[in-house]
Specification:
The structure holds two protein chains of two kinds. Chain A is mainly alpha-helical. Chain A is 73% helix and 0% strand. Chain A has 14 helices and no strands. The longest helix of chain A is centred in the middle third of the chain and has 37 residues. The radius of gyration of chain A is 22 Å and the shape is elongated. By secondary structure, chain B is mainly α. Chain B has two domains: 44 residues, no CATH class; 213 residues, Orthogonal Bundle (MetI-like fold), CATH 1.10.3720.10. The longest helix of chain B is centred in the last third of the chain and has 39 residues. Chain B starts with a helix and ends with a helix. The chains are: A mainly alpha, B mainly alpha.
Chain lengths: 296, 309
């Protein structure tokens, strides 16, 4: 914690660099986290290089090529409309990551300020925000997403909103509890004494020190949002075909489970690996960013 | 007033406020619909009279504040409205399917508790052993596995390839095996993780050393002294997991065609039967609040530090 406090008094470059290095050094020692990072990097490369890796258009239908088992020309086979499954998974990576990033951003943009205000000011404001968080928490995430999609309608934008709303309460709770601890710190008291405004204290002094748990939560939430968004797609209530999306591919594959089980096996594997990657990296970051573990 | 009674009242009030919050969100869900909800529910081919009938039935012809008061008043009386599809009371439709969902959720919770706690205890008492590594890796896989994919994989293996179990439906007694296994995996993984972490913390405490020093059998130390204390945070996770199980039931029931309220919810969304959607969302959330209230009370009953804290 001392490292971070020093950034406030001008030793910015050296200390931030050392904090980052320290975190990286600890993260590197966490082998499962490295595996997770490797998985996510692989997904990022595959998503970017999709047009180079596969010559197929992920939406082009060719009914004469329907339901071909995995072979040299189609390493993961083709679906019921003759579309190459590998191409659809690769292009689907872009969409899943996009949904994850935007949905978690909703949680961050709404949840972090609400949690900070709730924790810093307390009183009736805290009570109101906590009741909102409690209420949102009492909807299982897929249920909340389903309810919102039911009224907003299907499609990419509505899926992002529906899944994103579900991430808000966990950020509220997390930031509130962190702010509750940090607001009693001596440096916050000092800032208050020299006349720094409440907003200045919250954003410059408290939030900067609350970044570690927020980063961890955001990483873990990426996995959850991908899982929930794909769940919506699986039920036919997410991003609509012919757009390649992992969940809807799995949903389509379900109809052919007896004749072409590979249609559902590979998109499912992609979802599983992406979520696993985020969970591993999240766990590793939690350990690496926890100052209590630095001494060990 | 004793500490426990005060705590009980506080928790009851908080649960009630949350329930009112949930009901308010559910009320506004229908009002979020772009355009005229009555027209959307009635469908494209409906006549003006039909749309007007639905509008009156849902109370949409009244001012918003009055709609809210009527909605809340009906809720208190246990009236969730009528299904737009069947004109049956929503409560009747839900009640017919609820036992199936509860059966699935309860079996999965029992499975998660028994397997998760056992795996967590063994992993913690044999730290860094092969079992510990396998359990830790297994629970990581469990929390990352999409329930809908796992369900399909189990169908491919046990129904398509091996022909051991039915792929869908609820007709046979064995029909519950695959859906409950699918639904339980995530919770098993989470409970195992939590139990392991909690046990490791407790096993380092002085009273465990004392228990060992006075010559108690290891089994007594683990189960009577360690697990009893380590179980408190695990209980919370199990309570929270019940909610996740209800959410997971929506997907699991869809995979296996299990006739519960999860499947009814998905069917109702496709049919734009919003009164049923509202009713199910409300019942799911109310069950979640109730289970967590019970867990909180149990928690305070087991751990006196909470009620006097």
């Amino acid at each position: 914690m001392a490292d971070i406090t020093l950034t406030e008094i001008g030793h910015l470059d050296i200390r931030e660099d050392s904090l980052l290095r320290l975190t990286w050094r600890r993260f590197r020692r966490h082998r499962p986290a490295l595996v997770g990072m490797f998985i996510l990097l692989a997904f990022a490369i595959l998503a970017i290089a999709a047009p180079i890796i596969t010559p197929y258009d992920p939406t082009a239908q060719k009914l004469t090529q329907a339901l071909i088992r995995p072979c040299a020309a189609h390493p993961l086979g083709t679906d019921h409309l003759g579309r190459d499954i590998l191409a659809r998974i690769l292009y689907g990576t872009r969409l899943s990551m996009l949904i994850g990033i935007f949905a978690v951003s909703i949680g961050l943009i709404v949840g972090v300020p609400l949690g900070a205000i709730s924790g810093y000011y307390g009183g009736w404001m805290d009570m109101v925000v906590q009741r909102i968080a409690d209420t949102l928490f009492s909807f299982p995430s897929i249920l909340l997403a389903l309810s919102l999609v039911a009224v907003l309608g299907v499609g990419l934008q509505n899926v992002i909103i529906s899944v994103g709303v579900g991430t808000i309460p966990s950020f509220i709770r997390l930031v509130r509890s962190t702010v509750l601890t940090l607001r009693e710190e001596t440096y916050v008291e000092a800032a208050r004494c020299i006349g720094v405004s409440d907003w200045g204290i919250i954003w410059r002094h408290i939030m900067r020190n609350a970044m570690a748990p927020i980063i961890v939560q955001a990483t873990l939430s990426m996995g959850t949002t991908i899982l929930v968004a794909a769940g919506l797609g699986f039920l036919g209530l997410g991003v609509q075909p012919p757009t390649p999306e992992w969940g809807s591919m799995l949903g389509e594959g379900r109809q052919y489970i007896f004749s072409a089980p590979y249609m559902s096996t590979f998109p499912g594997l992609a979802i599983f690996l992406a979520v696993l990657g985020f969970n591993l990296v999240g766990d590793g970051l939690r350990d690496a960013l926890d100052p209590r573990l630095w001494q060990r | 007033m004793s500490g426990f009674t005060r705590y009980l009242i506080q928790r009851l009030v908080a649960a009630l406020l949350t329930l009112i919050g949930v009901a308010t969100i559910v009320f506004f869900l229908l009002r979020l619909l772009p355009g005229d909800p009555a027209r959307i529910i009635a469908g494209l081919l409906a006549s003006e009279e039909e749309i007007q009938r639905i509008r009156v039935q849902l109370g949409l012809d009244k001012p918003l504040w009055m709609q809210y008061i009527i909605f809340m008043g009906r809720l208190i009386g246990g009236d969730l409205g009528l299904s737009a599809r069947t004109s049956q009371p929503v409560l009747v439709e839900v009640a017919a399917r609820l036992p199936n969902t509860l059966k699935l959720a309860v079996v999965s919770t029992i499975l998660a508790t028994v397997v998760g706690v056992s795996a967590g205890v063994i992993a913690a008492t044999r730290r860094y052993s092969l079992f510990d590594y396998i359990a830790s890796f297994g629970s990581l896989i469990g929390i990352s596995m999409p329930v809908y994919w796992l369900g399909l994989l189990l169908i491919i293996l046990f129904a398509v390839k091996l022909h051991w179990l039915p792929a869908a439906g609820a007709e046979k007694p064995t029909s519950i095996i695959l859906p409950s296994l699918t639904l339980a995996l995530f919770s098993v993984a989470l409970v195992a993780r939590m139990t392991r972490a909690s046990m490791l913390e407790v096993l380092n405490q002085d009273y465990i050393r004392t228990a060992r020093a006075k010559g108690l059998k290891e089994r007594t130390v683990i189960f009577r002294h360690a697990l009893q204390n380590a179980f408190i945070p695990v209980l919370t996770v199990i309570g929270l997991q019940f909610g996740a199980l209800l959410g997971g039931a929506v997907l699991t029931e869809s995979v296996f065609g299990w006739p519960g309220i999860g499947l009814l919810l998905v069917d109702s969304i496709f049919a734009r039967d919003y009164p049923v959607v509202q009713g199910i969302v409300l019942i799911f959330s109310a069950m979640f609040i109730l289970v967590n209230l019970i867990v909180d009370i149990l928690y305070a009953y087991i751990d006196p530090r909470i009620r006097y804290g």
